[in-house]
User: Fold this.
Amino acid sequence: MSSSTSARPAAAQGRFDHRMAVFGSDDAFLAAALPFLAEGLAAPDEPPPVAIAAPAHLAVLRDALGTDAKGIGFIDHTDWYTGTAANAVAQGAGFLAANAGPGGRVHLLMEPDWAGRAGRSVRESAEWIRYESLANLLFAPFATTAMCAYDTRTAGDAVVDAARRAHPGTGVYEQPEVLVKELDAVPLAPSPRSAVRLTAVEGVRDWAAGQGLAPAEAELFTRAVAEAAEAYGPVIEFLAWGEAPGCVCELRLCRAVADPLAGFVPPGSGDPEPGQGLWFTRQVCAYVDVRDGVMGDGARIRVQYA
Assistant:
């Protein structure tokens, strides 16, 4: 794929400006990043822009900026993208609350860690495309300007093509409701015949401990399942399978969830705490899959600890 960039003029105040830059060389990266950071430096009522990128790209930026680098924040993307896509939502919300200007004003150059967790499997990549898409809804109230940087040398063509559909201004943008529905149309693997049926959430703790989770982890996993049950119950049954650390519990619900943002909207408290529903579940577990039934049937929420 040839190197290219896609960017738009700054959005009106109070509206998330979500851009995308695609590059295949360090020179192409600089061609996109330097004007973006300069725009942030010149923006009124904003703190200094921040570059969140691979260490090699941060070094290239520092060299190109010279003494101007002192006016820009630099964050290794392995320090920012430290867990799941839901964890990245929490990281972003916390950063804006603590560091952004009025209304969330700040320029963020953001390069996901495609050489790390985000790119380690098709499933992980799909979760991050979901995150990129839902960001258009989650951060819509903020006047934040974000440019997501995609290096074709690490992200790959398939990921880049999918990411274009999550970024306005690319010519192939899909509304989040459409793209997320498409991602959710991929069926989950069927539960194994060996799965254990539990009638109450209290049984999850003993089951998980019996599968090898340490007591504290079994308690945390049970709390995560309970939070989902309390938010979207009543639960018809709990179906459990797997061994530590990949213990899985699937909740069969009486009603649909029907909300693409379920569990992604940050609560008032920054740290995950009991009582935060599916947000808590997404923050402490590696995977949370929500599938609504057809013809008005209930939903399934599948929770995997690690």
Residues 196-304 form a domain with the Heat Shock Protein 90 fold (CATH 3.30.565).
